[in-house]
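Journal club side-thread
Mid-discussion, someone asked how the predicted structure for our own chain would compare to the paper's figures. Pasting it here so we can look after the session.
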Amino acid sequence: MSFYIGREASKLWKRICAEVTTEINLLAENWKYLLAGLVFQYIHGLAARGVHYLHRPGPILQDVGFILLPELGKEKAYISETLFTIIFLSFVLWTFHPFILKNRKIYTVLIWCRVLAFLVASQFLRIITFYSTQLPGPNYHCREGSKLATLPRPDNALEVLLLNFPRGVVYGCGDLIFSSHMIFTLVFVRTYHKYGTRRWIQQLGWLLAVVQSLLIVASRKHYTVDVVVAWYTVNLVVFFVDKKLPELPDRSSAVVTLLPVSTKDKDGRTKEENHKLLNGNSGDPADWRQRTQVNGKIVENGNTLHADSAMNGA
């Protein structure tokens, strides 16, 4: 038992080392794209922080989702965040599965380059949208009477640049259209739908995206329009950006090319060579002349030769 565990551990370690080497090479080629995507995440957070200074609380707007879905309340508002955290962490872990599992279809560095491209394009549109019109926030800390609904004028630029993390991120107001949670959720679900291998997980991902949408509205973190706009905007962004990006290399095909010739190929080649010899052709391609046998005679290029004469050396 201990021998088996030791052997498997050794294989796993070799697999991890080989994958690390491959991903480091890819990182050396694509680090600029990853860095740009991560920097834009900060810019997006900075923009959301800035619009909070412009937010003015007011009466909650009439919303169909608020009418149809019962309000969860402050005590149960964590349910939406819990589901989002599960989706987020599950996707992150999946992108690193090539380091451990044998069956792998993606490269971690390349898949994150693609994901960040989707996120940046969607978040750029989001920044333009929520700065165009500021709606009164429906969330509890954004309503009239809450001290967090408006932010006092910052004393210095550092206060804005540091985003008051993490409190400033969790208790933001004004960045409504369209939902940032749905941007991440839909990008992750669509990416796994294309590159994932488990069909039931693909279907579960779309189901969780729908449940996440309902919970966001039920938690009163967004208006229904914020979620609806996210659904068609993010899907369109991913569709068009994906067409512009180069397709990821298929690791399964790369593995096949490194394998030796299969027994099936060898058998097929042997049968073909035997067939040539039966027809009187040699293995030399230059001697691939058509020969047919008719009534005990071999016909070659229109000339008839007696088989028995050939055997007697005539």
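Post-session note: Confidence is low (pLDDT under 50) at residues 254-266, 274-314.
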